[in-house]
Every structure is written in C-alpha cells, then in structure tokens.
Specification:
single chain; about 375 residues; alpha/beta; 3-stranded mixed β-sheet; 14 helices; about 40% helix
C-alpha cells in the first residue's frame, strides 16, 4: 500500500539507533549532529501472533507477514523552517510520510552530546512543533494568496475556501496543530489538499536508559503531562537495549536477554504495532497450503477494496468473499471444520472487513 512512517526528532536523541533496531538496516548512528543527512529507508515487519497461530494450524509452505515502510529522517534544529541546518530537506522528507514517530531524549549521558546542551524533552518537542507550525503557516499563506486570486472570479465556493483557510491560519498562529482542528467537509478537503506537516498523526517515543525502561523517570513524567489532550500515544523504549537485542542471532538468545532485563517483548514491537494503529490499519489473512499471509488494509475498507490489495483483478471482478473469523478458525482448527460447523460466512460488496478476518475471494475477470 506504500504507507510510510517517518522517525523524527532533534539530533542525537536515538533516531538512527531505533531505526537500526526496527529494520536491522545498520544506518549510521553517530555522536554528532546530522549524522543522518539523507533519509534511511527500511521495511519493518508487523509482529502478529495470529499469523503464527494460523501457520501452526495450516502448516503452509510459506509464511508471509505484512510490512510498513519507515524513514529515519535527518535531525531538526531551531530555524529549520527558514532552512537552518538541514531544515528544508528535513521538512520535505516529513511531507512524504503518512505518520510521524517523534523520538524524544529522556536519558542522561555526558558521553552523548545534546544539541542544546541540556536534557529537556518538553523543550525539544516544542522546538520541532514550532518549526512544523511555521512551515505550515508558510504553506497556508501561499494557499490563501492563490485562493484570493481565484475568488476574484466571483465563485462563492472560492470565497468560502478563503475564509476556511484564513481560519486555519488563525488556529496555527495560536500554536494549535492542524490535526486537532475541527472542520466541516470542505475544510477537511482543503486541509488534506495542503499536506500540512502538523496534520499528520504522531506517536511519541521516549528514549530512556535501562533503569527507566519499565517505570519511566522524571523526564518521561513531565513529557506525559505536556502532551495531555493531544490524543497521541507515548511509548517508553531504551534504544540501546533494542540495538543489543537486534544483534542477537536466535530467538532463544533474545528471550533470555529480555528476561534478564525484565521485559516481556522487544520495545520495537510496541513501536511497530503503535505505528500500524497510528496509520489506521488492520490486517486480514489468507490461509492455504501454499502460504499463510497477512495483508494490510485501512480500517473501514469493504471486501472488494481488500481483495484489490492482492491483485487489481480481484477488485474489478469481485463476486463474493468467503470469510472466517480468526477466533472461529482457531476454535475449529481448519477451514473444512469451520465450514462443517456452519461458521463461514459468504459476504458481498458491502461487507466491511474486520481485523483478523481469514478470507478467500471469488472473482471473475
């Protein structure tokens, strides 16, 4: 589906270390600003125990998980909206992604320099928020000028869009992120068309030291208070731990390491699942002897759209979908047993796919 998350933050907060752990891509992680100039790009596998359970029952030749694309974007500094540092490049990269994973530094370490000389995640966040808002204001002002020229033709809808755009500008000037604005249908369309940076959904990742990975610290507590009302999720992670886990070769070694650290699973799994949720995605499955596979779709998609992810012909020639709920598949143990129990449903074009559905599509082209 081509969906992307972008990892952002100030220089030296742990973005590239987290990216390496997520993708095992070995991006340059160095102790100086702008170690990442061009965005590193990688694919991350979405962990889903349901896929493993289906594979256990079906015993296929191949198991294919679903993936999302992630970008490690250059660090940002004050003045980026005016081109300071790698500002223009940074902001252009953010514009390309569908959601933002914002990493903030919540650990003390004299050996890792901070671009502002102090550890203050709340202030760090404000720096990035301000630069994104300033760039969005620039975008909105250009759009207002363009709309005003069009409105001179006398069209009522163009004059209405000028008013909407000016209202958006007023809210941005107050420091309100575009994603928090309440707009009518015309406003939502205009907002979508402007590709504003602050309209993108955000996940906050607090990079802490080993001691604070389970309980947090004073930095994370202050940060949690600062984002109340944002409708955004916050996750604690120790990028150093994740880097060590990524270096281990076997599942057994990783489980032993996690146990020693008092962790149930790698923190990157939480980041991946939260990113998936942030993008408003769900998973459906296909299951057969050849392969058991996870497919990514948007929440709310109907059966023909879901079929089109496999192949466009499936959507064009859609006839029906044979659907088994994941719990029923596990309960009865096989597709044949589910059918025998009368628990497989046959759905048409208006069926809204549920997360975890096991599906088989009938089509004719």
């Amino acid at each position: 589906m081509g969906l992307k998350c972008g990892i952002v933050g100030l220089p030296n907060v742990g973005k590239s270390t987290l990216f390496n752990a997520l993708t095992s891509a070995k991006a340059l992680a160095a102790n100086y600003p702008f170690a990442t100039k061009d965005p590193n790009i990688g694919m991350i596998t979405v962990p889903d125990p349901r896929l493993d359970k289906l594979a256990e029952l079906v015993n296929p030749k191949a198991i294919l998980p679903t993936n999302i694309e992630i970008l490690d974007i250059a660090g940002l500094i004050k003045g980026a909206s005016q081109g300071e540092g790698l500002g223009n490049q940074f902001l252009a990269n953010i514009r390309e992604v569908d959601a933002i994973v914002h990493v903030v530094r919540c650990f003390e370490n004299d050996n890792v320099v901070h671009v502002d000389g102090k550890i203050d995640p709340v202030s760090d966040k404000e720096v990035i928020d301000t630069e994104l808002l300033l760039k969005d204001l620039e975008t909105v002002e250009k759009r207002i000028d363009s709309l005003k020229k069009r409105a001179k033709s006398g069209k009522k809808e163009d004059a209405n869009l000028v008013t909407i755009a000016e209202n958006i500008k007023t809210e941005l000037e107050k420091g309100i992120m575009a994603r928090k604005l309440e707009l009518d249908e015309a406003g939502e369309e205009l907002l979508k068309d402007m590709f504003l940076l602050t309209a993108k959904p955000v996940l906050y990742v607090c990079n802490v030291d080993e001691i604070a990975v389970n309980t947090g610290n004073e930095h994370t507590k202050r940060f949690a208070e600062s984002i109340q009302g944002e409708d955004a999720e916050m996750i604690l992670i120790c990028a150093g731990i994740e880097a060590e886990i990524a270096e281990l070769d076997t599942i057994e070694e990783k489980l032993e390491f996690l146990s020693e650290m008092g962790l149930d699973e790698p923190g990157v799994n939480k980041v991946i699942r939260a990113s998936y949720k942030l993008l408003n995605l769900i998973t459906y499955f296909t299951a057969g002897e050849k392969e058991v596979r996870a497919w990514t779709i948007h929440r709310g998609w109907k059966a023909p759209q879901a079929a089109g992810v496999i192949h466009t012909d499936f959507e064009k020639g859609f006839i029906r979908a044979e659907v088994i709920g994941f719990d029923n598949f596990v309960k009865y143990g096989s597709e044949a047993a589910v059918k025998e129990a009368g628990k497989m449903s046959v759905e048409g074009k208006e069926y809204v796919v549920a997360d975890g559905d096991v599906m088989h599509f009938r089509f004719n082209v």
